């Protein structure tokens, strides 16, 4: 699995919304500026995240975007899958893909890819945006302490 710019920017946007959780709707221009995301690109990512049910959006002068659920209830896997698609590195281990490999179940490598997929999913499922936000705060504090 490789995270593209789409995934990276989407995760950054989610981190900004997590940092502002409970403060109401956040304008996309504020998210773009705070996380160094091109505004036009961000707009499309926010649509994808809204369709995936991880954020809510509202139009108008008091509108913007916010998390649809508490950060502890939104996993990194949910966002990565919404933005990047399946976690599996090959089609043969994706449950919704017809396995047209001539080796099928007797392929030794297929079982390795399945283990990679399972491990990746487990790690991303266990990582919430609350966890990521706490780590971000910790890293910022550590950096400030080093430069003081």
Poorly predicted runs of 5 or more residues? none
Number of strands: 2
CATH topology: Arc Repressor Mutant, subunit A
Structural class, from helix and strand content?
mainly alpha
Please list the strands of the largest sheet in the order they lie side by side.
1-2
Task: Sketch the topology as an H/E string, one letter per element.
Answer: HHHEEHHH
Q: Number of domains in the coordinates?
A: 1
The CATH homologous superfamily is called Winged helix-like DNA-binding domain superfamily/Winged helix DNA-binding domain
Approximate strand percentage: 5-15%
CATH-level-2 architecture: Orthogonal Bundle
Radius of gyration: 18 Å
- Number of H/I helices: 6
Descriptive overview:
By secondary structure, this protein is mainly α. The chain has a single domain, classed as Winged helix-like DNA-binding domain superfamily/Winged helix DNA-binding domain (Arc Repressor Mutant, subunit A, Orthogonal Bundle), CATH 1.10.10. The chain contains six helices and two strands. The longest helix has 19 residues, at 108-126.
């Amino acid at each position: 699995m490789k995270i593209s710019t789409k995934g990276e920017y989407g995760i950054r946007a989610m981190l900004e919304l997590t940092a502002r959780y409970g403060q109401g709707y956040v304008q996309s221009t504020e998210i773009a500026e705070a996380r160094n995301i091109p505004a036009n690109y961000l707009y499309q990512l926010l649509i994808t995240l809204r369709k995936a049910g991880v954020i809510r959006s509202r139009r108008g002068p008091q509108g913007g975007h916010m998390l649809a659920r508490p950060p502890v209830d939104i996993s990194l896997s949910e966002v990565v899958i919404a933005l990047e698609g399946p976690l599996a590195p090959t089609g043969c281990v994706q449950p919704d893909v017809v396995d047209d490999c001539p080796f099928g179940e007797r392929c030794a490598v297929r079982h390795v890819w399945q283990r990679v997929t399972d491990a990746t999913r487990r790690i991303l499922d266990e990582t919430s945006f609350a966890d990521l936000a706490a780590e971000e705060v910790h890293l910022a504090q550590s950096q400030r302490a080093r430069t003081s």
